[in-house]
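Protein fold
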Amino acid sequence: MTTTLVLGAGGATGRKVVEKLVAKQGKGDQVLFGVRSPDKYKDAISSIGGNVKASKQDVSDPEGLDFAGVDSVVFACSTSTYRGAHSVDYLGVVNSIAASNKSSVKHFVLISSRLVDPVNRWHPIRIILNLVKWKLMDHKFSGENALKSSSLSYTIIRPGGLTDSTSDLYIEAVPAEGELKGTSISRSEVADVVISSLCNSKAFGKIIEVVSREREEGEKGGGDRLKEIFV
């Protein structure tokens, strides 16, 4: 029996994580749909089915977080406003770490982004993302560092460009700043990687970058590939 809190569950990636968790639920498992305005998502939660409960959580407000009874946290938040990255993508992680330390959280999974490390500061995509939402990538990297320096067990997942593809592709996964052939990955695949990291001690304390591409001869897909990602 486990309780997993998905922060940012109202977003496209967060909701996909919730759906995948529900599909794998065991008896007594619970998923908390963490959003600032639960009433807004009543219909969405109802349509997902399973043991999903709305959970009012505001990562930008340290007093607006309560992780009591939570075993695992998935941070899938990202700012929706031009200047919100500091309060959501950075301080939101800091506040969530503090709330986790006050409760029984055993593992924290952070969905970040490829190119977040400042070693990529002159990469055109990183520059654009930092401009479209003010210093978004800089603040995401600060959030990563806050988690790495905390006492929590963690996994940081850096996906490439997010898509809504439903194809069964080959998931490439490498350590931070590793070489990858692909550039994008579906939200569904990101959710699969998140879930595979939750109860896998081999995923703890790791940062991985993930994209997907067409499979080459002999390459595994689906669950068989997921088993190989954290080794």
Q: What stands out?
A: The first helix runs from residue 12 to 23.
